[in-house]
Specification:
Blueprint (H helix, E strand, L loop, with lengths): L1 H28 L1 H9 L1 E4 L10 E6 L5 H6 L6 H11 L15 E7 L4 E10 L3 E6 L8 E6 L14 H6 L9 E4 L4 E6 L5 E2 L5 E2 L11 E3 H11 L3 H8 L3 E3 L6 E6 L5 E7 L13 E7 L26 H14 L2 E2 L2 H9 L3 H6 L8 E10 L4 E6 L9 E5 L9
Parallel strand pairs: 2-5, 3-16, 11-12
Antiparallel strand pairs: 1-2, 3-4, 4-17, 5-6, 6-7, 7-8, 8-13, 9-10, 13-14, 14-15, 17-18, 18-19
Helix pairs in contact: 6-7
Length: 405
């Protein structure tokens, strides 16, 4: 009996040792992923009556393999991106998200001379996140936003599971807007280019899908690249021009950039005019600049002159006009963040529906965010709760990743 118990003890000790070794190996391999998942914190709650989703903050640990992503030459489509994320980050857990982005944005200055980049994100009800990254290795810290639908988390989830949190690891590859520690901000918007109908009468847009001998980049990974490696608008454009762009999902997009000098640019890949822009492989980059004297306002249509036959063809032209009207009242100079959010509120979906400027739809403004490119602070108002402190969150690079509310 004693011999049996001794053998049993040896077996138990061996199994325990194996378990400990396995735990150490897993901890070493998944250290950053485990730390990131553990950091996820809910900061605003689900509210069905106001059609609010939860809001989370995620402090991302490590470099999320983005140097490897760039070194391999990027990817040319969402399937390749998902394969990369599953192989490197989520360790086989599938990420079935789809990218889209409505939205409005503008640039302006404050009375103190600070430069601001201000943006609404419009889409169907969803949970959202503020993501904080510090990748190291010569790359810049950044604060970005993300929609959890894009990593496959249901928009109706009142609580997210452990598996959902693991899926959220992919969100660093899907920023909707953001700013890095150098004061460079960027954002993405649907541009509704090359609209056509299929055999069943369904409407589609023509996505940009350029294929030359350059390395490849998709919509949101281009934004991640810019935030990680670039300090100014000019640096970002120089880097972007080295890549072939492949729009994410099935949509067409355009993008805006703004930096601490006040320089801003809208980047649009187009071919000829809206009526003929039906081949995404033939598009070339067109850039509309602002030196900060006049605001750069972007919604959901191409802003290159002569692209459309009339203003009636421009999606979001009404929101653009209303933002410009508000900016004209102040000479494109605001007193601070509160006034900047007030201007964003005129383009908020819920606000416009209540004011009779827009019919009710599935779309909502999920967040309104003001990036101060001068003092490097980010203020986000969730789900159009303007003026409500419990839904307004401020983060600073001076005290990085700590809520300074």
């Amino acid at each position: 009996m004693k011999k049996f118990l001794k053998v049993l003890g040896i077996i138990f000790a061996s199994l325990l040792a194996l378990v400990l070794v396995a735990a150490i190996v897993v901890g070493c391999i998944w250290f950053h992923e485990i730390k990131t998942v553990a950091s996820i914190k809910q900061i605003a709650s689900f509210n069905e009556e106001h059609r609010d989703g939860n809001v989370y903050v995620i402090n991302y640990s490590g470099g999320y393999y983005f140097d490897d992503f760039i070194e391999q030459g990027g990817v040319s489509n969402d399937s390749e991106l998902m394969a990369f994320i599953m192989n490197h980050i989520t360790k086989g857990i599938e990420i079935p998200g789809v990218t889209s982005a409505g939205c409005s944005s503008y640039t302006c200055a404050t009375e103190d001379g600070d430069r601001l980049f201000c943006r609404n994100f419009d889409l169907s009800k969803s949970n959202s996140a503020i993501i904080l990254t510090n990748p190291g290795n010569g790359r810049y810290k950044s604060i970005t936003t993300a929609d959890l639908k894009y990593c496959g988390v249901s928009q109706n989830k009142t609580e997210i599971s452990l598996i959902d949190k693991v899926k959220c690891l992919a969100l660093t590859y899907a920023p909707m807007d953001g700013m890095n520690e150098k004061g460079l901000a960027c954002s993405i918007y649907i541009s509704y280019q090359g609209v056509y109908e299929d055999a069943e009468g369904k409407s589609h847009t023509t996505k940009t899908d350029i294929s030359t001998d350059k390395p490849d980049i998709t919509s949101t990974t281009m934004m991640r690249m810019v935030l990680d490696y670039c300090a100014t608008v000019d640096e970002a454009i120089e880097m972007i021009e080295k890549y072939d762009l492949h729009d994410s999902s099935t949509n067409a997009f355009h993008y805006s950039l703004s930096d601490a000098t006040g320089k801003a640019a809208c980047l649009e890949w187009i071919y000829d005019t809206n009526a003929t822009d039906l081949d995404g492989t033939n598009r070339t980059l067109h850039i509309t600049y602002s030196d900060g004297t006049n605001p750069l306002v972007v919604t959901n249509h191409v802003i290159v002159e002569g692209y459309y036959a009339s203003d009636d063809d421009k999606k979001g032209f009404d929101r653009m006009s209303d933002i410009k009207a508000e900016l004209e009242k102040t000479g494109s100079v605001v007193s601070g963040v509160d006034e900047a959010l007030d201007i964003l509120s005129v383009a908020g979906v819920r606000t416009r529906v209540e004011a009779g400027k827009q019919e009710a739809s599935a779309a909502l403004t999920l967040w309104s965010v003001v990036y101060n490119l001068t003092d490097k602070t980010v203020t986000l108002c969730a789900n159009e709760h303007y003026g409500e402190p419990e839904y307004t969150f401020t983060y600073s690079f001076d005290d990085f990743f700590k809520n300074v509310k």
